[in-house]
Amino acid sequence: MVRGYAYALGGATQVQDMRIADPSTHRSPNVELFSRVWGVSVFAHLVIGIATLVLLSAMGIWSAAPLIADTGTGELWVALAAFILGGAIRAYGGLHVSYLMGIDRIPLLRWWETCFWLLAFVAALSVLLLGGGLLEIAIGYQIPLCLNIVWNAWLCRRDQNNRAGFVSRIRVDREVLAQLWPSIWRTGLGTTLFIGATQGAGLYYATVGEAQDVAAFLFAMSIIRPLGQFAQVPFMTKLPRLARLQAEGERGAQRKIAERSMMLSYALHAFMVIGVALALPIVPGLRGSEVQVPILLWLLIGIAGYIERMGSMHLQLYATTNHVLLHWANGLAAAVFLGLAAVLLPTLEVYAFPVGHMIALVMIYCPIGMINSYRSFRLNFPIFEMRTSLAPVTVLLLSLMAIKK
């Protein structure tokens, strides 16, 4: 949906395939196509909201029923319902998030999102300190988040009112939906396969590994996920602009933006990985915990995350053509990772997971993303990598060598 909005603003006449675009035509925003993407997005997010409500209800009732039965407190069912309803409403609220990202209002979106999440935290904490129960905490937490959705909807409406010719209506536009559907299911499948493989491996190891190693691995993985998400912000926030430039055929501007944003993301990732490595020796004392993460394990996980970012950003850059390869890259890499982890686990134990992950990424994930990205955008190898990824990864590898010595 984000790319669909960006393509329309770039003057595209369709949202299916942007691998070829003439820079001399289609410079004016296509408001008619923009309106059609909005109509499809409204319908799609309505379906997503209903599906989320059904899934969360089934999972919540199944998992919470024994606990609620033990307490004998019917109020907990109402609290659970509040969380489920809030989750479903937020899923539907992705409608407005996609719109604001598609029109390149990401800083504005994230600023208000942070404010409302902070308000939700303060509200829940205040209710807790005042002696409120789980129901009151659930309501206090969900209200600010629902208000965030209302605010995002107002921001969207304000922008739409300023777009001459924009028509807001729910419609199942089969033509636009058919154009968007291939990239939708490929992205969803690729994401599911990757998350299933990496998190599933951790869950499996929790059943067979030593308690200390399991705790260290799971703690390190809980750090690397938000770290990786934060590190990719400089690049991910540029994707709507890159998609718009793709529709306009502005390859030179794309290359400059991609190079700078990738370089910042790489540097931020490396900086945070090394910062965590320096902090690891004092973390157990600060947390009052016996969990100790070996620095070698953390650096291997951090380098695997770095390599993943390399492949991911090139895949995302190539996806601005709306030819999505995430399902192939993630699916094949996940299969290789699981096979390598199974073979290496008896020998390397917990280190088998980051080592297997790195090998799978280098063999499958990165080549699929980088080859297509280099070919499509005519990037110069190895000059492009020398300007972006080389220095940060060199620092990480030198840190790894220093630890091993």
Write the layout of secondary structure elements.
Layout: H1 2-9, H2 31-71, H3 75-92, H4 94-102, H5 106-129, H6 134-161, H7 174-208, H8 211-231, H9 233-236, H10 239-248, H11 251-279, H12 283-287, H13 295-319, H14 326-348, H15 352-377, H16 383-388, H17 390-404
Helix pairs in contact: 1-2, 1-4, 1-10, 2-3, 3-6, 4-6, 5-6, 7-14, 8-11, 8-13, 11-13, 11-17, 13-15, 13-17, 14-15
Describe this structure in words.
- With 405 residues, this protein is mostly helical.
- It has helices at residues 2-9, 31-71, 75-92, 94-102, 106-129, 134-161, 174-208, 211-231, 233-236, 239-248, 251-279, 283-287, 295-319, 326-348, 352-377, 383-388, 390-404.
- Helix 2 packs antiparallel against helix 3, helix 11 (251-279) runs parallel beside helix 17 (390-404) and helix 14 (326-348) packs antiparallel against helix 15.
Radius of gyration based on Cα positions: 23 Å
The succession of helices and strands, N to C, reads HHHHHHHHHHHHHHHHH
Percent strand:
under 5%
Structural class: mainly alpha
Described by strand count, sense and barrel closure, the largest sheet is: none
Instruction: Report how far apart the termini are.
Output: 49 Å
Total number of helices:
17
Q: Uncertain segments of ≥5 residues (pLDDT<50)?
A: none
- Average per-residue pLDDT, rounded, comes to 84
Q: Let me know the number of strands.
A: 0
Taken from the alpha-carbon principal axes, the silhouette is globular
* Estimated helix fraction: over 70%
